[in-house]
Amino acid sequence: MTRDYASVRYLVDDVQAAVEFYTSHLGFTVNMSAAPAFADVVRGPLRLLLSGPTSSGARATPAGTGPGANRIHLTIDDLAAEIARLRECGVEFHSDVVTGPGGSQILLADPAGNLIELFQPADRPE
């Protein structure tokens, strides 16, 4: 039986550094690795395809494109604790915590500059 994943491709300049980042800091596990060209890591239903410069996925990308404002969105139970844990690991954030009616979020980036949003939903009255 195959597992259904939502897959997202991130272009990275160093596949091994990206694998280390996602597995060490964000709870992903390696599904397959063909480093230095490609690896994919999974967390729950998300399959993150990490394509290095020599991968077919990266070669299909037009020149001049790169990491943009798109980002993966990871739901966190305790955002403050997760921020503290990641800061202890030396992870730098690219925003302050932003809080709105839906919850709180903060942005960080992987070693290639791809954005990751950590999000804690607001408590909802029952």
Protein described:
The protein is an alpha/beta fold and 126 residues long. It has one domain: Roll (2,3-Dihydroxybiphenyl 1,2-Dioxygenase, domain 1). The protein is 20% helix and 37% strand. It contains 3 helices and 8 strands; from the N terminus they run βαβββαβαβββ. The strands form 2 sheets. A 4-stranded mixed β-sheet has the order 1-4-3-2. The protein has a 4-stranded mixed β-sheet with strand order 5-8-7-6, with no helix packed on it. A hairpin with a 2-residue loop joins β6 and β7. The longest helix has 11 residues. The model has no long low-confidence stretch (mean pLDDT 86).
Helix percent reads 10-25%
According to CATH, the fold-level topology is 2,3-Dihydroxybiphenyl 1,2-Dioxygenase, domain 1
Structural shape = globular
CATH H-tier superfamily: 2,3-Dihydroxybiphenyl 1,2-Dioxygenase, domain 1
- Kindly give the count of domains: 1
Instruction: Report the count of strand segments.
Output: 8
Rg (CA only): 15 Å
Backbone structural class: alpha/beta
User: Averaged pLDDT, please?
Assistant: 86
**Describe the biggest sheet?**
4 strands, mixed
CATH architecture: Roll
Strand content: 35-45%
Termini distance?
A: 38 Å
CATH class: Alpha Beta
Order of strands, main sheet, comes to 1-4-3-2
Sketch the topology as an H/E string, one letter per element: EHEEEHEHEEE
Number of helices: 3
Low-confidence stretches: none
